Structures are given as structure tokens and as C-alpha cells.
Amino acid sequence: xxxxxxxxxxxxxxxxxxxxxxxxxxxxxxxxxxKKLFQNRYRKKLQNIL
Length: 50
Fold this sequence. Notes:
This protein is mainly alpha-helical. The chain is built from four helices and no strands.
């Protein structure tokens, strides 16, 4: 998911430079990110903010 988003130049600029996007990503729990349920939730949150 993240690699697909980072390959898109527009999304990459938002991830690198937009404070709100970085805050949302920073709130993701790294311990839960490997679990399928949380991957879907985090994907939706990332898509909404982008």
C-alpha cells in the first residue's frame, strides 16, 4: 500500500510536506499495523486524508 502511494509524485509530496498527513501516519500503531484488520483501517484513513 505505502509503496504504491509513494510511487505517485503527488501523494509523495503530500506525505513528505503536509503536516496533517504526517500526523495521521504518526498516530498509526506500529504494533498493530501487521494485523489485517488494522491494515484495512489504516488504509482507509490514509486514503481519506490524501
